[in-house]
Design brief:
With 315 residues, the protein is α/β, with parallel strands linked by helices. Helices cover 18% and strands 41% of the residues.
Length: 315
């Protein structure tokens, strides 16, 4: 028991302390630890993952990582372009190697007769000359080096002989093909070769002539209908006669047909070439290219011009 006189000397309890029964007044319980920052809202109202993400974004912005990522993406695109260039270079190299490994003509030129199924159309896809003649019996003769002749395709499908090589050819000493046939329906050139008629082709019903390469074509015909088309840089020289004629130029080649007498002629010129025709009764001319359409005869002319060229009479 404390004496009454000691009451005035009692120490006041420390803030946050608890008197425990008869414990001495100076014995206290330590205050509770402070709450974590997350509980006190020190970081923010979002979840922990959101707060961490916000901090990461801020850090990346400060450090310039966005710029680094852009540079990395740019480098990836550059790498893609480099890879594409390497592939293209490899492809060109393989093509050049293939050309170098092509067949080369050997020995002197020889003449060989080919026994082929009936032919009424010729497609020339190689560099060479084709000489056409009209005759009652078919005959095909080839002048070239022996291994070049053996490399020629001789398949004829539905009357069409597509003249091309079985394997690539690097070099040869010329190629001349003589073809005699009773009739003719189509002649097409898609390479740099030339086709000429050695005799006039008469009694033809519908003849189609096409150049899609740089080759030249020279024909004399008598046909009910003739269609001539140039989509390359080659030239056509036509003579004879045709009841109807249709001519179209979408390339840079020329059609010279002043010696091809027609009753009705239709011309469509959308390229840079020139077309010269002979029309007796009617001429329909459509011009949207840079070339000119010139004509002989005294036809009724219907023209539609939207290009730089003109339709001119040359009588």
């Amino acid at each position: 028991m404390q004496k009454s006189g000691d009451i005035g000397r009692l120490q006041p309890p420390v803030a946050g302390s608890v008197l425990l029964g008869n414990s001495p007044p100076h014995h206290t319980v330590p205050p509770p630890p402070p709450r974590p920052l997350l509980e006190r809202g020190a970081i923010g109202k979002g979840s922990v993952s959101e707060n961490l993400r916000d901090r990461e974004v801020g850090f990346r912005r400060v450090c310039g990582l966005h710029s680094i990522i852009k540079i990395q993406n740019f480098m990836k695109r550059i790498q893609g372009i480099v890879i594409l260039g390497v592939l293209l270079f490899t492809s060109v190299g393989l093509s050049a190697q293939k050309w170098k490994s092509g067949i080369e003509g050997e020995g002197k030129k020889v003449t060989k007769t080919l026994d082929l199924p009936p032919i009424h159309s010729v497609h020339l896809n190689v560099s060479g000359d084709v000489l056409l003649s009209q005759g009652s019996a078919q005959e095909v003769r080839v002048e070239a080096q022996a291994n070049i002749i053996e490399n020629l395709r001789t398949e004829v499908q539905d009357g069409v002989w597509e003249i091309k090589f079985k394997k690539s050819v690097r070099n040869y000493d010329g190629l001349v093909i003589h073809i005699t046939v009773p009739t003719l329906k189509e002649v097409a050139i898609s390479g740099s070769g030339e086709v000429k008629s050695r005799t006039p082709f008469k009694g033809l019903d519908d003849l189609r002539l096409t150049i899609s390469g740089s080759g030249d074509l020279e024909m004399e015909v008598e046909a009910r209908r003739l269609r001539a088309t140039i989509s390359g840089s080659g030239d056509m020289d036509l003579a004879g006669s045709a009841t109807e004629a249709e001519m179209e130029i979408s390339g840079s080649g020329d059609i010279s047909a002043y010696d091809l007498r027609t009753e009705a002629c239709r011309v469509n010129l959308v390229g840079a070439g020139n077309c010269r025709v002979w029309a007796e009764q009617e001429l329909n001319a459509t011009l949207s290219g840079a070339g000119d359409i010139s004509y002989k005869g005294s036809p009724r002319v219907k023209s539609q011009i939207s290009g730089a060229g003109d339709v001119v009479a040359r009588n």
